[in-house]
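EI: anyone free to look at a 270-residue chain?
SC: sure, send it
EI:
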Amino acid sequence: MKLAVVLGYAGYGFSGSQFQPDKRTVEGEFIKAGISCGAWKDAKSASFRTAGRTDKGVSARRQIISVTPENPKKFIESINFHLPPDIWCVEYAEVNDDFYPRYAAGIRTYRYYFPCPMDIAAMQKAAEYFVGVHDFSGFSKMEKGRDPMRTVTKAAVFAGESGLPVFEVSAKSFLWNMVRGMAGILVAVGLGLTPPETVKEQLASHIWRVHPAPAAGLIFWDAEVPLSFSPMRQRTAVQRELAAKAKAARTDAAAAEALLGCGMDKFLRE
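SC: here you go
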């Protein structure tokens, strides 16, 4: 039986989602957990597939994967208790053998969380230029033979729970590093280094590549699939791990800014 699974992971501990020899990846850890709980014997029998790969440091809230466990019931009940605390399964659905997450997923949504206060109104004005069909080669790391044209259905910047800016963007598909490139130019706009209209100019000319924002702020937020999912048992260790990481990050940031003494603004604009 093939299952579609909604997967979450904290990307800071991984070298990406796709398997790489001798490196810690989401796929590698997931395969090991499945072997541990008796879901499959090896990577080949697991048939691990994703709706989209993520790079080193990028996290996911609702990544869609598919697997073919030998004992689906055992997999559903136990996989979360064999995974490390920085990976978790949220929901599952039974699917046909020809289900492939990459092609089944419709609109994909990413969010980028910025680490400091910025001009959200200016960033929102800039983000509006992304909507529509554009050549995004100036915002991406282009792979040979890839079509640079992409259709963005939504692009918005808003204040998150902390009051800091959050960028949300949706499209059927994205180019490599495209969202980080978009976030990179929004940083320049938000800090007042360039006007919002620069986004429009860059989309039209794409003669230079925007420096991408760091991977740590990026989350694969959601992927639309026409399935009815059922919840899976969760581990409290996942919430504890995320809370501990958040607490440590805030403590480290506060201490670093106190030691800096002169404030962050000067360095944010470099």
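EI: The radius of gyration is 20 Å.
SC: 👍
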